[in-house]
Write a structure and sequence with these properties.
Elements: H1 2-15, E1 24-27, E2 32-39, E3 45-55, E4 58-64, E5 77-79, E6 83-91, H2 97-103, E7 108-114, E8 121-130, E9 136-139, E10 142-145, E11 149-152, E12 165-172, E13 176-186, E14 189-199, E15 205-216, E16 222-231, E17 249-253, E18 259-264, E19 267-272, E20 276-278, E21 282-295, E22 297-303, E23 323-329, E24 343-350, E25 356-364, E26 372-379, E27 383-394, E28 405-415, E29 421-428, E30 433-438, E31 442-446, E32 449-456, E33 460-470
Parallel strand pairs: 1-4, 2-16, 14-24, 17-21, 22-29
Antiparallel strand pairs: 2-3, 3-13, 4-12, 5-13, 6-12, 7-8, 7-11, 8-9, 9-10, 14-15, 15-21, 16-19, 16-20, 18-19, 22-23, 23-26, 24-25, 27-28, 28-33, 29-32, 30-33, 31-32
Amino acid sequence: MKRFICLVMFVHLMTTPCHARPGEIDTGAKDQTSLFVTIYNQDMALVKEKRAVVLPGGESTLAFRDVSGRIIPETALLKSKGLRVVEQNFEFDLLSPESLLEKFTGKTVELIKTHPETGRETRLTATVLATQNGVVLETPTGIETGIPGRLLFPHIPDNLRTSPTLTMTVLNSAPQSRELELSYLTRGLTWRADYVAELNPDDDRLNLKAWVTLTNTSRTDYLDATLQLVAGDIHLAPREQRNRAMPMMMTSVEADGGFAQEEMFEYHLYTLERKTTLKNNQTKQVALLQAENVPCTKAYRIDGQGYYFSRSMGPDGENPKVQVLLHLENEKKNNLGMPLPKGVIRVYKQDSQGMLQFAGEDHMDHTPDKGALKLTLGNAFDITAEKKQTDFKKLSTSSKDAFRYQSAYEIKISNAKAIPVTVTVSEPVPGDWRITRQSHPHTKAASNRAQWQISVPARGEATLGYTAQTK
């Protein structure tokens, strides 16, 4: 069936050239004089283009080809001095072997059969009866399916287009060449920031490089476009979820000028300082920034659970993981200091042989100038912890304002490294609470969080003990 349909399409296109429809003025990418594409974080883009088109006076129909196949038609806006739009349509019923057959259901085509031995061709008039799960034809010799031949179509139906087309009925004040400004919103254009960081041997400095990853699944190409990116979360009205095509090709471009950044409303706008081409079903990477010798701090943390404080944990206890974190400040003095769009940051480090190894990754949110980055890269191998509940009881009280539970805990932290480390123990304590006994002083990091800084010697261990009352 697939092979048959391909033959059908081949014969038709070879015999019927595709021109603009009678009465339409056809305009495509060849008429573009400028193209601007602004892409947002949320599968949304604004396309702005100018085209030079010769128009007659009075009413005419413009057929804009080479627009996005995922255009939001109601957002289209055409501007030109002396021109008024009275009607517009987005036509996305595209020419294909399947759609061509469907449009000729109940109509007459020509069936061409070739004799397998002599090669002699026989032509028959046939009526297309059905196209579901195969083609059914009625010929003078009977009803046929699975046809070993070709079909010849007399024309392309008026309701089929060779590419997504935006048609507009316009009133023109005078016949002349006009510069048409067309803008519209579209789905299918997305971008994200991807960061690559390489740590130095002491884990206190890193080199950071950021790429902008662009993906085009809008079913059209954007040639030689001025590209702008908006970082920020704009509000969009809810919409029905649709399937997205997967990107088919990936290219990488090292941008000489990179992106120029500026504030725009409550967002940040990045403009690529040279023109670029975004092809359909393509993923492209363009350099955003490069920073050398950025100071950073490695930290270790143990996170607890809030439900510990209102029930017994049992005799076995648990072994909480010790997380490895990386902190850095987005400041000019640290060789950064530009607003960083959200994305994924991947951290690498060289081993003793000079080979680069993957150390972990984390998502980062939009980070303004002078903002802080706190990345969780994984769990420490040489730093382990054991936690057990040493006491739990419900406090007997008749007052509803009194503390109702008392829990005591012991956390032993072991360090197999040859250097001392400091581990932050962070306990989320629910409701009203107070620490009545502790082996190390705590800080109240938030209304529901107590934290301890525990110094653990090289190849040694340290134990935190505390008692909390909650209600």
